[in-house]
Amino acid sequence: MNTMTAVNTESSISIRDLTLNFGAVQVLKRMDLEVAPGEFIVLLGPSGCGKSTLLNCIAGLLDITDGQIWIKGKNVTWAEPSERGIGMVFQSYALYPQMTVRGNMSFGLKNQKMPQAEIDARVARAAEILQIQPLLDRKPGALSGGQRQRVAIGRALVRDVDVFLFDEPLSNLDAKLRSELRVEIKRLHNKLNNTMVYVTHDQIEALTLADRIAVMRGGVIQQLDEPQTIYNRPANLFVAGFIGSPSMNFIHGAVKGGKFYAEGIVVDLAGYEGGALIDRPKAILGLRPEHLTVTNTAVAGKTIAATVEIDENLGADSLLWLKAGDNQISVRIPVEDRLNAGTSVHLEVDMSKASIFDAETEARV
Amino acid sequence: MADATANTPAVGIGPGPRGAKPRNAFAPRNIMLYGTLIIVAIYYALPLYVMIVTSLKGMPEIRMGNIFAPPLEVTFEPWVKAWSTACTGINCDGLSRGFWNSVWILVPSVVVSITIASVTGYALANWKFKGSEFFFAVLLIGAFIPYQVMLYPIVLVLKNLGDGISFFTVALGLGKVQVYGTLWGLVIVHTIFGMPILTLLFRNYFASLPEELFKAGRVDGAGFWGIFFRIMLPMSLPIFVVAMILQVTGIWNDFLFGVIYTKPEIYPMTVQLNNIVNSVQGIKEYNVNMAATLLTGLVPLIVYFVSGKLFVRGIAAGAVKG
Amino acid sequence: MADTGISSSSGARGAPGSVATQATLPIARKPSRLFRNLASKIALVPMILTVLVIFVGCTIWTVVHSFTSSKLLPKLDFVGLAQYERLWGNDRWMVSIKNLAVYGTCSMIFSLVIGFTLAALLDRKIRFENTFRTIILYPFALSFIVTGLVWQWILNPDFGIEKVVRDLGFESFVFDPLHSDQFVIYGILIAGLWQGTGLVMCLMLAGIRGIDEDIWKASRIEGIPVWKTYVQIIIPMIRPVIVTSVVLIASGIVKVYDLVVAQTSGGPGTSSQMPALYVMDRMFKDQNLAQGFAASTMMLVAVAIILIPWAYLEFGGKKSRG
């Protein structure tokens, strides 16, 4: 092994060649990640994809097998968590039950042997930012879930660090509180402009909060991009299927001469924004439900004939489940355009927003 | 549920049963159930009852009547005699000697064994390293090795330990130190044999606390001892109580280690009790014997009746090994 | 701690928006494995010492010395299997084994049956459940010495049950197990069951209570009688608890010592000898150490025979090493 490594000294967090094994299982596989100062990165993926594990490695709570971790230009690969210049917020809040809110927030500072006056000043400032001053002398047991999570954020805040790590901080809260705190975290980020690494399995949180999203599966980052790119140009089949609800429609077929052929379907691929469309015997056409429109008139190469099966009223809009040949297709339509089951319609494809995947490599073309 | 609303006729409008199903407290089934339980309870309670009534009778009354009859004339003479003048061999200062010996054995043994086991359990739950689980597995297997297998070599270990310590104390001019045959030898033995079950108890308890608390502590810069004392200990009172109950009753009731690792002057109460009751010389004074037996059983009985549910939790925790 | 390589070109931060600056820096070397989590390793020293010195070391020491002719002092003059031949040719040992077999079989069967039956009775949502449980479990808190002495007294033919029944008019009634070569072991069994069944009941009750309430609803809807539900549905469902109970009872049986010492001292004659007693007498009374080591090694083998199938059932297939 060479004893020197190239590191991007401008990055806030720089992860090089990170590998983590649990026994024979490789949990993280030679991972690289650069996070710019002030960037909000969301690690997104299904459970077991290694996103929380990666966060724990950054925090120093797990000893890695191989690789390097740099935070603010400092090699912290083997540093203690408290020496890494990070603050962390946990899913279960992890507030020390026997200490007051003030005690919880000042525990880390006391361990640093900071003067009491400085501790008080920092706690007061964090409490003000999070508006938890009235709670300072209460025990965590007397707080609601939302209040607890604010305190947990406050505990990270008083450390006055550049990097915040969030481990699914909102998943123990109910839907309403979750969206409130989501906005709060966003506001906090705008105000402090810290680097934030945020782990979640909730794609709404990821899409709303992130500057960039890292979609993970099986210990590997599948795609690292801005939310809009992830949504519109998913790098592969997994990312395409994981992001978006209801998920993207996948039609199995073949690409031949600039056209996509599936059973009973022929679509002209002109206007597709992606790579060169060489012929592929096995390809998958991915269409998001909102990128299809229902029309009555068939246009050769532009529309897909389908029959309505079910119409689900979602309140704001309506979801239409149709059958086109063997394929099930969902389409989002305005509520007022609802259709009865059995109606035959044509679906117009917006090719500029479609994705084509190679069925073998599962990568986007 | 069984009979609280017994025989209450169903009140309501219209025909058909309404409300709770009527139940009869004296249904044959209930009589069977409670009858069986009462007989069982009598069987279990009887020895305690016999101990009490026998210890309150004079010897003439014991020779005349039957052991189940309550005392006609209550006397506390046997208790006084058992406590202060009953003889074991040449010593005739009663069980009080054994009682205080047991107390002196109990206190350090409980403190040392629980201290070591709690730290061990914490380290095993939160600070695993390669090999720690393996040693723990062997420790648990060790709990099943019959004590008889290890008794003699432990005598040698304690003797050597004494010699080893003496090497330093003599060099420092403090004289020779004995471990085997002393209180501290027995404390070590109790610590060793209490370790598997207590460690399991503490390890499982600490492992059941949210792992994120431990992680938060590390991010906050607390180390091994900082997390133990500042975060874990304040949350662990219940498990310490359970461990105390387990150890107090276990060590108080010990006979085997007391016989082997101590000398007659510091025999614990159980050993002295056995020597008093099963001594072959003299006339048997059954009332004194029963008073002595009760006195010996008193400490664990008080612990048991005071702790109630926690005791059950303790033994259930102690029982679920592996 | 890591040898942190602090960026030498950190001045590059002053140029926002510039292309990422690449600097070549020394990588941190992995710190020595030995000193990572050092506090945790130090904390586990008592456990590791216990495992290595006592559970492994002392056990091997005893097994090795069982192949010698050690008498008063241990010495390493190997005589092959001579001690084992002597052991199996010894009448007292054979009596011990026979007693252990009878006591063990009965104790196992009755403990399980009585324990489960009592648990099922207490599970019937009865009133005073806590009182009944308290009464049935309290003997478990007592020392075996206390238990042995109480039952010695109750079974005393001159004052105890035999006399009470005779006084009722049954002049020829005989119930004197403790003085009968043939029945003495059953006298010990009565006392052993009295002390131990409460624990089994508690475990079983915990197991039964742990079962989903819906099972009962389902069996009621299908009209299965209560006793049948217990036997055919509940028992298979609490298999882990039963296995735990079996292991606990079995390891208790092999260790039984104090109870016999207190109740009969192994008598009359040698008819209530137990292996543990045999070991203790050989080692500490007769100064025939190697014979005691051989006997205790046999006890170890017996435990292994019980334990290995259990471990296989419990952890079968899985590797339990962390």
Description of the molecule:
The complex is a heterotrimer of chains A (365), B (322) and C (322). With 365 residues, chain A is an alpha+beta fold. Chain A is 23% helix and 36% strand. Chain A is built from eight helices and 21 strands. In chain A, helix 2 packs across helix 3 and helix 3 (116-130) packs across helix 4. Chain A is elongated and about 75 Å long. Chain B has 322 residues and is mostly helical. Helix content of chain B is 68%, strand content 0%. Chain B is flat and about 75 Å long. Chain B starts with 27 loop residues before the first helix and ends with a helix. Chain C has 322 residues and is mainly α. Chain C has one domain: MetI-like (MetI-like fold, Orthogonal Bundle), CATH 1.10.3720. Chain C has 14 helices and one strand. Chain C has helices at residues 38-43, 45-65, 82-88, 91-122, 129-137, 144-154, 161-167, 184-209, 213-221, 226-237, 239-255, 258-263, 275-285, 289-315; one strand at residues 22-26. The A-C interface holds A 2-11, 34, 63, 68, 73-80, 83 and C 1-7, 9-10, 12-13, 18, 20-28, 30-31, 36. Strand 1 of chain A pairs antiparallel with strand 1 (22-26) of chain C. Chain B: This is ABC transporter permease. Chain B: One of its GO terms (biological process) is transmembrane transport. Chain B: InterPro entries: MetI-like (IPR000515), MetI-like_sf (IPR035906).
Largest interface: B-C, 96 and 100 residues
Number of domains of chain C: 1
Taken in chain order, the helices and strands of chain C follow as EHHHHHHHHHHHHHH
Alpha-carbon distance between the termini of chain A?
36 Å
Give the helix/strand class of chain A: alpha+beta
- CATH level-3 fold name of chain C: MetI-like fold
Shape of chain C: flat
GO biological process, one term (chain A): carbohydrate transport
Domain ABC transporter (chain A): 13-243
Keywords (chain A): ATP-binding, Nucleotide-binding, Transport
Pfam families (chain A): ABC_tran, TOBE_2
Overview features:
heterotrimer, A: 365 residues, alpha+beta, Rossmann fold, OB fold (Dihydrolipoamide Acetyltransferase, E2P), six-stranded mixed sheet, five-stranded antiparallel sheet, 8 helices, 23% helix, elongated, C: 322 residues, mainly alpha, MetI-like fold, 14 helices, 2% strand, flat, ABC transporter permease (chain B)
